[in-house]
Design a protein that fits this description.
120 residues; mainly alpha; 67% helix; globular
């Protein structure tokens, strides 16, 4: 399950979107390490884009929660849903097929949040 997600170049955003959705669909993002790897890549992708600045805060909070070593399931669900909301708000500002890719990502984030068990 150790994947390298770091992307560079013009197609990096679409490649990162595909990798993220695939990780959620395959259940790989359940690993805190996998999640932090994806978040690091997302930071690189969104930090210089003013259209995605609202995504940085929930990403930061999600990263911190995962890094704590004992992430609280209810908090993870909340952060994933916030990230889905911000992703959905960003989608209409995107160009070309990125709009539908961002919508797909928002759906994957919500689906994954729904799968997180609140039981200890």
């Amino acid at each position: 399950m150790a994947h390298q997600h770091s992307q560079t170049g013009g197609s990096s955003a679409s490649t990162l979107l595909d990798a993220t959705v695939a990780a959620f669909d395959q259940g790989q993002a359940a690993s805190a390490q996998e999640g932090m790897s994806l978040i690091t890549d997302w930071f690189s992708s969104v930090k210089s884009n003013h259209l995605t600045e609202d995504i940085v805060e929930p990403l930061t909070q999600l990263h911190n929660e995962l890094q704590s070593g004992a992430p609280e399931p209810q908090r993870l669900k909340q952060l994933l849903n916030e990230l889905a909301d911000e992703t959905e708000k960003t989608a209409p500002k995107a160009e070309g097929d990125m709009q539908s890719r961002l919508q797909t990502l928002a759906t994957a984030l919500r689906n994954f949040a729904g799968q997180i068990s609140t039981a200890v």
